[in-house]
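Posting this for the archive.
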Amino acid sequence: MFYREFTCENCGKETCQKVKHRYQVKEKRRFCSKSCAAKASAAARREKRIADGWVPPQPRAQRPQPPFYREFVCVWCEKHVKEEVLYHSQTAKKKRFCNRVCQNKWMHANDVLNSKGESNPMHGKRVRDVWLEKHGEEKTNELLEQRRIRQVRATAGEKNGMYGKNHTADSCQKISNFRSGKTLEELWGEERAQEYKEELSNKMRGAGNPMFGKTSSGGRSIKGTYKGYFFRSLLEYSFMRHLEEHGHSLEDIDYETVRIPVNDTMTYKPDFFIPATQTLYEVKAAYAVSLEENLIKFEAARYYCKEKGWTFAVVTEHDFRKIPFAEAQSDANVIFDERTLLYFRRTM
C-alpha cells in the first residue's frame, strides 16, 4: 500500500492520500478536493480582472437601501416630479414625462404622433367591437364587466373629481340647454340608446319597479278593492257590479292582463278581459273617449283584437248604471284605499 502526502494550496490542510502505484507517491498535488480547486481558480480569475481595471461591487451592507427615488422635470408641463422606484439602478434612468397624457400632448404638438380623426386606428369603433372580434361574446362580456368594476373603483368616493362639489348654476344651465329637446338617440346614438332602454326596462320590471305590489294614489279617481279585486275608479267598480248582474263571475275575469303595443315607446293595457266571450273592455268616462291620446290606444286595441279574433269595446257610464259613492260606501264587499279616499273627501 502506498501513500502520498501534500499540503492544500487553498485551505492549507495537511493531506495523506492512498494511491495504487509507487510512482504516484512522487506526483505533486495542489488541492485536497475539487471544491478547493474551484475556489482557487475563481480567486485567480478575480485577481486577473482586478489587474485589468475591474472594480469589485460593494458589500451588500454598504449598498444603498430602499426606498429609492427618481427626480426629473416633465418636458411638457415643466412640473418637478419626485417618484419612488423599485430599484436603485432606476434612479439614474432618464424620464421625460410625468404621465402618459403629457407624453401624448407633446407627441401631438411635435407631429410625432398623429392619431386624430381617421388616422386613429379606433376611429369609428368601440372597444366592445374590437374585443368581440378578438375574444368572442363570452370573454368580451367578462372583460367589459372587469373594466366597469375598475372604473367604478377608480372614481368612487373621494377619487371622483366631483366629490363634495356641485355644478354651478351656469354649468347646470349649459347642460340643460345641450340636452333640451333631444332624444336619447340624438345624444348617444341609436345602438347605445336602445341598449339603455332595454337595460332600464329589465331593471324596472316586476319587483324592480318601486310600485310593484302597490296601488297608485295619484289622480282624482277613488281606488279600492271589491271582493278582493282591485278597481281604479267608481266607474270600474260599477262595471264590476254590472258584469255580476249579467251572470259573470269576477273569478273568471282578468283585470289589466293584456298588454297591447301602441308604438315603439308605448304599450296599453285595457281594463277587463272576459275569456268566455273573448271580449276586451275599456272602461272610460264619456268625456275622455274622444281625447286624441285615447283614440290612438283604442285604434291599436281594435287592430290587436282583430288579429286575435277577439272583440274590443269601450264602455262609459251611458252603457251601465254608475253607482254613487254613498251606495259604494255601504257595500260590505268594498274596501277603499285610505289615501285616495281622503283626497276624494277633500274635493267633495
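The mean pLDDT is 85. The two ends are 134 Å apart (CA to CA).
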